[in-house]
User: Which sequence fits this backbone?
């Protein structure tokens, strides 16, 4: 009897921080000049280290801080 053991290798990649400039904010399907703390919105940046989701791939998760 042959037993096969499968091991899933989980790789966590930590990217270095990325300095970006906010180009635009989007809230309620409109571009806005400001948002309040805790308000959910979209942020358009000039660069990012986040991986965009496409074609069923898993997206990156992380956070953005104001420096």
Assistant:
């Amino acid at each position: 009897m042959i037993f096969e053991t499968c091991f899933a290798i989980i790789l966590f990649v930590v990217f270095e921080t990325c300095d970006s400039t906010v180009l635009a904010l989007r809230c309620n399907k409109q571009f806005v000049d400001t948002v309040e703390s805790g308000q959910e919105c979209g942020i358009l940046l000039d660069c990012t280290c986040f991986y965009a989701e496409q074609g069923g791939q898993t997206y990156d998760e992380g956070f953005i801080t104001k420096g």
